[in-house]
Specification:
The protein is of the alpha/beta class. It folds into three domains: 46 residues, lambda repressor-like DNA-binding domains (434 Repressor (Amino-terminal Domain)), CATH 1.10.260.40; 124 residues, 3-Layer(aba) Sandwich (Rossmann fold), CATH 3.40.50.2300; 132 residues, Response regulator (Rossmann fold, 3-Layer(aba) Sandwich). It is built from 13 helices and twelve strands. Strand 8, helix 11 and strand 9 form a beta-alpha-beta unit. Keywords: DNA-binding, Transcription, Transcription regulation.
Length: 339
């Protein structure tokens, strides 16, 4: 993409199409007083120049909206993020629009649609971003904030997360303090930054205590229940199964509980389990789940306030913010069984 095309204006499009600026404006605004042939010509030139109309100005309080976009179906984790963003939006007089899917296959059209819908900014949660998406949003002058991104594009973007390494360290040290040495990690996508940090925390704690990470003790999935069932089954069926498992999410931890029960194992007498997130799921499992509290509502609120600052043309102090995690001990962990 050349610099001139990135800076395309109404005048540029009008000159290329051989029509007036007023005609281009009529096409953009859906006016009916333009012939079909001229409309088709102008639309083709708009696509050729990758033109994105400037975001509409929102002067009236309550009209501004921010898109909160998830990459998959909503779950307990998503709900916490939404509640935090909605609460912060209510304080700022901004509406939150929740959507699913990140428009990977139609980057430019996706950015245009967000702008046309009057979005002030986009917050993408646990999304896989391709290189073209931040660029398209930047051309549209639509700020982007990522929460727990599965990957970070090469271009600098603003992101919100938690102290995942410290959380992984705390979870594993808790299990080690109970006498466990055969501890497995069943986590999310191997390439996800948040998962890598949790895994590194786990490995650091194991190494500090001289506890080996046995072959097959590290599994990856997608932070979902069925991945917990599958990953839990895989490590529990090893010749030397673990006496404790650190799960990369609460949802995965519940799946591991099911895999354990299917094998006749009692929790926590035979197997201790630690989750990550501290969603409502953690409090209603049987037994209640020991987990690492990730401040999800606060993350949603910080992301919303950061997005609004960027939309207002303000600078942010840091392009990556990490909020503190905290270990919450409940009933799913106990001293290691003998033997």
């Amino acid at each position: 993409m050349t610099a001139s095309r990135r800076r395309a204006t109404l005048a540029t499009v009008a000159a290329s199409a051989g029509v007036s600026v007023a005609t281009v404006s009529k096409v953009l605004n859906g006016r009916s007083d333009v012939s079909p042939a001229t409309r088709s010509l102008v639309q083709a030139v708009l696509r050729e120049h990758d033109y994105v109309a400037p975001a509409p100005r929102r002067e009236v309080a309550g009209l501004a909206t921010v898109e909160l976009q998830f990459d998959a179906h909503l779950n307990a984790y998503s709900t916490e993020i939404v509640q935090g963003a909605v609460a912060a939006g209510a304080e700022a007089g901004v509406g939150i629009v929740v959507s699913i899917g990140n428009g990977v296959e139609r980057t430019t059209a996706w950015a245009r649609e967000l702008v046309a819908a009057g979005r002030r900014a986009l917050i993408a949660v646990t999304s896989q971003m391709n290189a073209g998406q931040p660029a398209a949003l930047a051309r549209a002058r639509l700020p982007l904030v990522l929460i727990d991104p599965l990957n970070l594009p090469r271009t600098r973007v603003t992101s919100i997360g938690s102290t995942n390494f410290a959380g992984g360290l705390a979870a594993t040290h808790h299990l080690l303090s109970l006498g466990h040495r055969r501890i497995a990690y069943v986590g999310g996508p191997a390439t996800a930054g948040c998962n890598q940090a949790r895994l590194h925390g786990y490995r650091a704690a194991m190494e500090s205590e001289g506890a080996p990470v046995l072959p097959g003790y590290v599994r990856s999935g997608h932070f979902r229940y069925h991945d917990g069932v599958e990953g839990g089954a895989a490590v529990l069926d090893l010749p030397r199964p673990p006496t404790a498992i650190f799960a990369g999410s609460d949802e995965m931890a519940v799946g591991i509980m099911e895999a354990a029960r299917a094998r006749g194992l009692r929790i926590p007498e035979d197997l201790s389990i630690v989750g990550f997130d501290d969603t409502q799921i953690a409090q209603v499992t049987s037994p209640p789940l020991t987990t690492v509290r990730q401040p999800l509502r606060e993350m949603g609120g910080v992301a919303l306030r950061t997005a609004l600052r960027l939309a207002a043309g303000e600078k942010v102090d840091s392009h990556h913010v990490e909020l503190a995690t905290e270990l919450v001990v409940r009933g799913s962990t106990a001293p290691a069984p003998p033997g």
